[in-house]
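Lay summary. Proteins are chains of building blocks that fold into shapes, and those shapes determine what they do. In this project we predict the shape from the chain. Here is one chain we studied, written as its sequence of building blocks.
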Amino acid sequence: MSAEEKILVIEDDDSLREDLVMILTDEGYQVQACASGLDALDLAHRQNFDLVVSDIRMAGMDGLETLERLQQQQPSVATLVITGFTAEADSIRAVRLGVGDYLKKPFELSDFLAAVARQLHLHRSRKLRHQREQSLRQTAVWAMESLANTLSQDPLKGRLAWATAGEMGLSPEMSAQAQLAVLVELCQQKSPQTVDSDQLPCDLRHIVEEMRHEDSAQETLSLPARIAQVALQPQFQPETESTLAAAWQRATARSQPQPDSAAQRRRRASLLQMARSQEHLGESGALASYQQLAQEGAADREQVEALLGLTRLAKNEPQRCLGYAQQAVNLARSQNGLLGCVSALQAGLSLVQAGLLKEATTFYEQAGRVSRELGQPILEAKAILALSAAGGELDPQHIHKALNSLLEVSERFELLDAAQWLTPCLLRLQSRSPHPLQEKALNLIGRDAPGTFLRLLQSGALDPAARLQAIVALKDRKHPAALECMKLFSSDSEAQVRQAAEAALRSASGTLLPPTVRIYALGAFEVYRGDERIPDQQFRSIKQRFVLARLAASRRPLSADRIIDDFWPDSGEGGRSSLNVCVFHLRKVLRPKDWPEELEYILRDAMGIQLNQQLPIWHDVNEVLALASSEGGPSEENVVRWKRAVDLYRGSYLDNCYLDWAVAMRESLEATILNCLRSLLAALTSQQRAAESLEYANRLLELDKYCQEGHLAAMKAHLWLGRPEAAIRQFEVCKKLLARELQLEPSIALLEAHQRTLLSVK
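And here is the predicted shape, written in a compact code that computers can read:
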């Protein structure tokens, strides 16, 4: 936060406007406020702002129209919308305006401050990038003008010499040396001691400063000078004027500022999170948000997720549902096979709800085949079980093998994720042909997700035989949802069901097993209690979610002072009070509703604050760290573990948290998963497992597009799969990336692989 950052608050509620101004001023910001759009435009005409906070519904000009007109005056300003309404039309307008974030009234002031800090952080990042780009363009222009003035009588030749170097076949090293030669030649005519550094672009100032401290400066300058002269020799020039013009046009196009892909990705991720929240709350704005993401044509994971969201929303319109499903799966497959499998499974579930069983079966079969090729037993198991749930008649051995995969200790949460659609299938199978694995799976769901049985029972989806099996799965449970099920079973219309329920109640052991709490901090932050996702709205603020993540990531108690220093620095006793309130609400959120006994997922004692290790708690970060270990070398057991670690890495750790501890954890986890991917690729390529090598090479390149090991592994995989043309394209992509961004040539190994590929084509 900077005391120079200026915020404009537009709010027609006098009381709320005064509260927002007061809290922002207390945080050290410079704040201006007004009650109408016209007043806001007048203020924006007289001074620049870093962030505009605006209500939507106001008398006269509404907030979105105000933002649109204000952005015409100040295009780079960050925006935050606060509103008590979520009309679809407003959501569409907000998306088109590129609104940075929005809060729905009523909101916690802590949530408001977190949103303000987030938007200002992004604004500062964009501002720094813009300044950097301006400096680089200034450097390029200065270099070309200097070349025109000092090295050539032909201004056109001098202006194009450096800018078109890459377009005319020179190596990146030669282009860089030609750029440096411009400064060198100027300094030969004007001594470095007399060059005014303040007049130079910042990227070149340090070069001049170094030259001033070199005794033999004139000798060291001669080589770049000669390179510059070589760059202006006839062979450097194109053969015709038209080629020269085309080279200049391409160079000019490359010099234009490009969209900030990272910022675009963050915007799309934020929009996707908003759409998911709207869908969860049943708001109509979800449709507009998903459509906006789908129509942008970015061909990324966010677009796949948006199309899957549209598939879910269209389940009452079968043909539209099928159209969205096909788009989502095709796009996912074009990115990587694993994403295609996951998307096919999700799309298939929506198609089943839409009554399109045949089409869903096709998706499941494709997902099973590809996941088998990629060595993904968990995904293959889900595909097999989904086929069975959709009514497919499968070999019981295949079903039991799939169940066994999901019942492994480290994978049992995969079973809970599938509980809603898998439970009816298991009940049907168990009633027809009992098997210990089916019984074990039903007992696990009954322990961690008894609400699944209650929802099925209330929907009338269970026949008498299935209800009998549900009683067996719930007979020793005292979870409130299980007790409610037993109450319903005790008054069932079928005498056999009533008798079984009464017998189960009489013989119940009284065992009370709390549901497992699952915390996902990689990618979108989510918390589950059994199979039930805890809504974000139950947390009082985003800071509470971050505190929970902080506790989950620590293997030992954290002192209260440490947590206060992380989250409420410089707040004195107020920080201790905030921590007490935070812990109180987190305990309340994590505890299951109507739980009959005392249950504390968060412990606090003289040692500090920590999650209760005696209760079932699972954290994706701890799981990834345990699985990503490289001890034992490239054994098949380790290959399976490394794959699981990579699959659990859904995205960056707490991507919207900028506190020091979170940034450090984010960087450490990214380094861990990159090392894990390299180890996994080395093992897969050594065994020439082509499809798997290509899949995880692409996963590595998603995280580090400049990784030459990843490009090399992808080239080898394409060759093993009989696709030499694809291997050549992979090399060209790598070569261009390295040259344009890093001014590097491909490694010897890549060059050798490229030559072998060319020979195989010939």
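What the prediction tells us: DSSP finds 35 helices and eleven strands in the chain.
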